[in-house]
Design brief:
The complex is a heterodimer.
Chain A: E1 22-32, E2 37-46, E3 55-63, E4 70-77, E5 82-83, E6 87-90, E7 93-97, E8 103-110, E9 115-123, E10 128-136, E11 139-157, E12 160-163, E13 168-177, E14 185-193, E15 199-206, E16 217-222, E17 225-230, E18 234-239, E19 246-249, H1 251-256, E20 268-274, E21 279-295, E22 302-318, E23 321-334
Parallel strand pairs in A: 19-21
Antiparallel strand pairs in A: 1-2, 1-13, 2-3, 3-4, 5-6, 6-7, 7-8, 8-9, 9-11, 10-11, 11-12, 11-13, 14-15, 14-23, 15-16, 16-17, 18-20, 20-21, 21-22, 22-23
Chain B: H1 16-30, H2 32-42, E1 46-51, E2 54-61, E3 64-69, E4 77-81, H3 83-90, H4 96-101, E5 106-109, H5 111-128, H6 132-143, H7 172-180
Parallel strand pairs in B: 1-4
Antiparallel strand pairs in B: 1-2, 2-3, 4-5
Classes of the chains: A mainly beta, B alpha+beta.
């Protein structure tokens, strides 16, 4: 049984000077190796809870091999969000994490976009807390990760059912203080192999242009053990350029940002980690990409979150033993 | 900090003129500075706007928006589109350049008038990102049909992604110029 840990939302205190920069979100990815489906459900809060201009954003997207993205994003006033201790919901989108942290539920009902998804998931790897406030532009970011969950549920795409009963999940919770449009970004990836294979999570904060990248962190969870690599032991190397059609939501912001039609996204990403004892190389190939445009509700500015999904292979040596695996992954490039 | 001072009326179908008036009214409530920028851009221009079968003329007179029916007098610029394209743009199922290139969205007029129309749309979209009442108006438009006021179902299949572009009325020389400047999609 995985030892659970509570991970509540982190709202600002009423008199906090940086409350306007408040961000808090709950994110779930679903990886179904049988169908190749990769899905995401994300509900997030932007801006001070006491400012009527603050927003809640809900996103539900799913992509099957060779097909277009299904789903979309909605933006509402934050007062329309249903906010729990560790749950967020708006309209038909919700992520609810059990207060003990051992399980969660996620739903994305977007009938206008042809997607209905509901999953329940139980943690099969321990939570990783990065409670420390990592410098992020003029603010900071913290996060908490459950890198692997056993999923049950299903998705319905315009009447077609995708059984997610044997899918694998990933969950993280990010919170902090920054404004979209600040000189901030991040690279993050979750590489999830079929059971009993590893889950690899890599992350690093950056500036928007990737001229100043923070130290990267990579964790590998397999067979109940976790291995972590940091800093110079981790490298991310983008290769090529993604040439496919980019799904951009929400549509109104996509119209506004015609300058962001063709971002320089890679077609392949090589992630290596090694510390002289253990090592691994991940080879990720992008099959589809979506751009989620985030508007700051308080200060004019925009962030661009690119979700790249596809397949990966990994090989290396962990705890002294060689290993290899393959699976599905999502990589996020934010600027 | 923007404010939302009065409760919103219940959603209902609105004629095109009423939508345009409500857009600018809510823009002014959300950001007087943004509405002032729109007024400055539009100046004395008069425009004809057409959405499906509805056509109106708009102008600012004495700082206030004047909406009239489609008249015979010449206007400085005209803009046109249809409901299906508008919904597809709002849902992110079609890109703005695609709608422009295949004629689903169009504008005709003097350079200044056409620029004013599109710049005004940009200001509206930018402010909408920070205005719940503007977003509520867009939501109302997305949900209500133009004739019955009843909710609509799935979007027009014509705009379900994967659109083929059609570069109409563009000469070979113009295409070559666009390609040389790396402006082709």
């Amino acid at each position: 049984m995985i030892a659970a840990a509570a991970d509540p939302l982190r709202p600002p205190l009423p008199l906090e000077a940086a409350a306007a920069a408040y961000k808090d979100w709950l994110h779930v990815n679903v990886f179904d190796h049988a169908s190749g489906a990769v899905g995401l459900v994300n509900v997030s809060l932007h801006g001070s809870p006491w400012d009527p201009a603050s927003r809640v954003v809900g996103t539900g997207l799913l992509q099957l091999p060779g097909e277009e993205w299904v789903g979309g994003a909605i933006v509402r006033g934050q007062a329309e969000a249903r906010v729990g201790t560790s749950s967020l919901a708006v309209d038909g989108l919700a992520v609810a994490v059990d207060p003990t942290g051992a399980s969660l539920a996620a739903a994305a009902h977007l009938p206008g976009d042809g997607l209905s998804l509901e999953v329940a998931a139980a943690a099969t790897a321990p939570r990783l807390h990065v409670e420390q406030r990592l410098p992020f532009g003029h603010g900071w970011i913290s996060w908490s990760v459950v890198p692997r969950l056993a999923v049950t549920g299903r998705a319905v795409l315009a009447g077609r059912v995708v059984d997610l009963g044997n899918a694998v999940g990933y969950h993280d919770h990010n919170w902090g203080r920054w404004h979209w449009g600040d000189d901030v970004g991040w690279d993050w990836g979750a590489f999830v192999a079929e059971e009993p294979g590893p889950t690899i999570v890599v992350s690093r904060a950056t500036d928007r242009a990737r001229r100043a990248c923070g130290p990267a962190m990579l964790t590998v969870d397999v067979a109940g053990r976790r291995r972590t690599f940091r800093g110079a032991a981790v490298s991310l190397r983008p290769v090529g350029r993604f040439a496919g059609r980019l799904r951009r939501v929400p549509g109104a912001l996509a119209v506004l940002h015609q300058d962001r039609l063709g971002p320089a996204l890679p077609s392949r990403l090589l992630v290596t980690a090694g510390d002289g004892v253990d090592e691994l190389t991940v080879d990720f190939r992008v099959r589809a990409a979506a751009q989620l445009l985030a508007a700051d509700p308080i200060r004019r500015g925009y962030g661009f979150l690119h979700e790249l999904v596809g397949e990966f292979e990994v090989a290396g040596r962990l705890h002294g033993d060689p290993f290899a695996a393959r699976g599905l992954a999502v990589v996020e490039h934010v600027d | 900090m923007s404010t939302e001072p009065r409760p919103l009326p219940p959603p209902r179908h609105r004629p095109l003129g009423e939508y345009v008036a409500a857009l600018l009214d809510r823009l002014g409530a959300a950001s007087p500075a943004a509405l002032a920028r729109v007024r400055a851009l539009v100046g004395d221009h008069r425009a004809r706007l057409r959405l499906d079968g509805e056509s109106i003329e708009v102008a600012f007179r004495g700082g206030r928006l004047e909406v009239t029916g489609d008249g015979a007098a010449p206007v400085d610029g005209s803009g046109f589109t249809d409901r299906a394209t508008t919904l597809a743009l709002l849902d992110g199922r079609v890109e703005a350049y695609e709608a422009l290139l295949d004629g689903s969205v169009g504008a005709v007029g003097t350079t200044a008038a056409v620029t004013a129309m599109f710049r005004s749309i940009e200001i509206l979209l930018d402010e909408s990102a920070r205005s719940p009442v503007l977003q509520a108006l867009a939501r109302e438009y997305q949900l209500l049909s133009p004739t019955t006021g009843a909710a609509v179902g799935a979007p027009d299949a014509r705009h379900r992604g994967g659109r083929r572009l059609a570069l109409r009325d563009v000469s070979d020389a113009e295409l070559a110029l666009l390609a040389r400047l790396d402006l082709l999609p």
